[in-house]
Amino acid sequence: MNLIKDSTLDLFQTRRGVRGVEVAAFTAGAAVVVLSAVLAKEAGSAPILASVESNDATVTHVAHETVSSDAAQIVIDEPEATFPADTRWFDGRPVRPGGTIEMLVTAYSPDAASCGQFADGQTATLHSVITNAGQLVAADTRVLPYGSMLTIDGYASDEVVPVLDCGGAIKGNRLDLLFPTHAEALAWGVRRVDVVVWEYADGQPAPNPRRVR
């Protein structure tokens, strides 16, 4: 009887030992699985993190280039033009002398005393006679086209004035200066003077001479 009991006890202890080994093995295996999962997660997350960093770096780089490009564009497309202190200006643009012509210069007024039936308050270019503060010129457009810019010694305080009118008697190297009254036109009389012809100095084309100034 004791022999049977001892054998049973030994078997029970043997099975208990086996179970303990199995439990230990299971626990170790589970630990390995968990550790592997953690390592795998960390390993798997590395490329994602690298990808995010790569994307961020790309976005930052692109944004930096865009800003730099925009800044360069501003510098290139909108330079601050500088002109000498003695630069003359007309209609908000810089001008420079383009030549000088000796001309016979007379004067007229916008009233019927000078213009007769054509005293309608408009020039040949359909500008009002008060355009440019009433300081403008009639010329032969074959010599000086509409829109030409001139300075005439003794007229308009030597400011640049435009050619915006013509006249039946104004042919060749001849000008007719507009004055507000017939008396002032008569006071000018007839003079032969050197007339300076100006041109735009900003490299841009001349505007349409019929544009209202």
Radius of gyration from CA coordinates = 48 Å
H-E string:
HEEHEEEEHE
- The geometry reads as globular
- Name the quaternary structure: single chain
Q: What is the topology, as strand order, of the major beta sheet?
A: 2-6-3-5-4-7
CATH topology of the largest domain: Barwin-like endoglucanases
**pLDDT averaged residue by residue:** 76
Number of helices: 3
In percent terms, what proportion of residues is strand?
15-25%
Biggest sheet overview: 6 strands, mixed, barrel
Assign the CATH class of the largest domain.
Mainly Beta
Poorly predicted runs are 1-6, 32-69
CATH superfamily of the largest domain: RlpA-like domain
End-to-end gap: 133 Å
By secondary-structure content and strand pairing, the structural class works out as alpha+beta
Number of domains: 2
What share of residues is helical? 40-55%
In the CATH hierarchy, the architecture of the largest domain is Beta Barrel
**Quantity of strands, as a count:** 7
Features of this protein?
single chain, 213 residues, alpha+beta, Barwin-like endoglucanases, 2 domains, six-stranded mixed barrel, 3 helices, 7 strands, disordered N terminus
Task: Give structural notes.
It is globular, with a radius of gyration of 48 Å. The chain has two domains: 1-80; 88-200, Barwin-like endoglucanases (Beta Barrel), CATH 2.40.40. Strand 4 and strand 5 (161-165) form a beta hairpin. It is an alpha+beta fold and 213 residues long. 17% of the residues are buried. The chain has a six-stranded mixed beta barrel with strand order 2-6-3-5-4-7. It contains three helices and seven strands, in the order αββαββββαβ.
